[in-house]
Amino acid sequence: MAKRSFKINYILHLNRVSQMITEDRRLKSWHVSLYYALFHMWNAANFNNPIMVNRSELAKAAKLGSFNTYHKGMHQLEEWKYIIYEPSHSQFVPSVVHMCIFDTTHYTTESTTGDSTSTTTDKQQMSPLNKRIKTTKKEEFITKNTESKSTFDPPKLEEVLDFFKENNSVKREAELFFLHYESIGWKSGKNYIHNWMALAKKWIMNHSVENETKQLGKQALNRLIVSPSIDHKTAY
User: Fold this and answer.
1) For residues 53 and 88, which has the higher predicted lDDT (pLDDT)?
2) 142 φ, ψ (degrees, to nearest 5)
3) Quick one: 49 and 166 in the same domain?
4) Could you tell me the residue range of the domain that residue 69 belongs to?
5) Which of 96-100, 122-126, 211-215, 219-223 shows the lowest per-residue confidence on average (mean pLDDT)?
6) Does the global pTM surpass 0.90?
7) How far is residue 181's CA from residue 173's CA, in Å, rounded to a whole number?
8) Total number of domains constituting the chain
9) What number is the average pLDDT over the span 126-136?
10) To 5 degrees, how large is the angle CA 7–CA 10–CA 13?
């Protein structure tokens, strides 16, 4: 089998990573600073994998003030396929990081005639950006929908009753409001309701206007029914 070597193209690799970082909305600023600190250490090691890292030195280079943030960032960078992280559980032994290669210029040092592994090797070394972007967008969509469901906590009947009482509305209207939105899963259209109090305020106002309209109608009807009677004696 022919021996193969891989040469990292500094510019192409950074361009690819920058594009991935732009597309990946899971990343925070401290993820990015941690990755670039690792990249510079990798560069200093002539792009040899793996590299040995010291927690204190790497956290200082990435401008991280918390070791909890450091550990969380390292594990998430591994989870999201930017690095392979082998943490050390001893302060005297450095951790091991294998930097994932996102762009390479490969060449062979011996004849590649009959090298059936070349295609497989390239696929293992190269990370297809389009596939990563599609995966990221899919995860983003799932996360967004999950967060949408989890961020709204439907109110209890007691909370609704208290709110309507504080706003000088009757118990029956509170119950009608609660039963109506409970029956439709606390949604407005396709979206979950995030501010039920604002919706309850609108419900109370509409109910108040409706009552005033009915009251005015009744008063007008009473005036027509209870009109002054004609004095028949005076008329003659």
Assistant:
1) 53
2) -65, -45
3) no
4) 4-146
5) 122-126
6) no
7) 12
8) 2
9) 52
10) 90
